[in-house]
């Protein structure tokens, strides 16, 4: 049996185990940097497979190691995120979340069970494959500063440095059995804007005696939209959106302050930090013009995600060889963000998408939605493909 056929056979036979892992993880979600039971579960599975690992990396992260023939010839890293979201699940399924207010609504339970399944395959064929494999079970993808940044600081990409790193993410816009790739810039950077505008409160019927922070906030919001559209490169998409505005408590009272929260996203790292300064200057100038003042906190988040061109094209061709050309699609850029981006700024990386919906339209709810779920047939694809992509052998 050739190696590809062997991996497909192992993926087929390992499907039920991966589904059981996924169901357990889905039923017991833990939030970012609180994944203690999740880490324990992962460690138990690795131990049962006889795979060496280190725990407590970045708090609750686990890094495992598999060695094939000539282990020093190359090192491939594979990553899965393990945290859940503070969302109340609304699905009625046997594996529904048992933790009030927490849910694996972004598919990290799929990512974790997929990497465990790929680990089982790689470990079972380690005498037939070349090189070494570093399996990274990463905490805290959903929360700044991002678990990837912490693991990198702790040396997860050192001693030795991996030749490349692979990650995958669920994608309900594709049906199970399909995957998608995008080389080059793929996902945006993501920064948080926390803003407090302070004025002078008073009776709303006498605005001439007040400094209205609500009106000032409105001018800031609309003005920043114009500023960003005029300063940014039209060829490089940029998004500035405010998701929260809080201030005031009565119809006839001008409040003392208004608080706003927003997100700033782009694909150009140089423009990203230039824009921060434009935003600050614009806010201060508009506040000063009416006698108000502002506290501005721009929290630098994840960088843009860059899929290494040569690595990604090679992995795409391998995916075609494994799944068939009809099941591998090209993706567009996305304004969403992922802390896998930190890895791609250190070593060549490939972050691809795993189709998870059914052909009949079921399981099409988007991620971060209380109804998100997957067609679990996608697990057979994910565990086999991830193992296959980790290899160079035909």
Describe the structure.
The structure is a single chain. With 394 residues, the protein is α/β, with parallel strands linked by helices. The protein has two domains: 271 residues, Aminopeptidase, CATH 3.40.630; 109 residues, 2-Layer Sandwich (Alpha-Beta Plaits). The chain has an eight-stranded mixed sheet with strand order 1-2-4-3-5-16-6-15, with helices on both faces. A four-stranded antiparallel sheet has the order 10-12-8-13, with helices on one face. A two-stranded antiparallel ribbon has the order 7-14. It is elongated and about 85 Å long.
Which key terms come to mind for this protein?
single chain, 394 residues, alpha/beta, Aminopeptidase, Alpha-Beta Plaits, 2 domains, 8-stranded mixed β-sheet, 4-stranded antiparallel β-sheet, 10 helices, 34% helix, elongated
CATH architecture of the largest domain: 3-Layer(aba) Sandwich
By CATH, the topology of the largest domain is Aminopeptidase
The biggest sheet, with number of strands, parallel, antiparallel or mixed sense and barrel status, is: 8 strands, mixed
How far apart lie the N and C ends? 12 Å
Helix amount, in percent?
Answer: 25-40%
Kindly report the spatial arrangement of strands forming the biggest sheet.
Answer: 1-2-4-3-5-16-6-15
> What is the mean predicted local confidence, pLDDT?
97
**CATH C-level class of the largest domain:** Alpha Beta
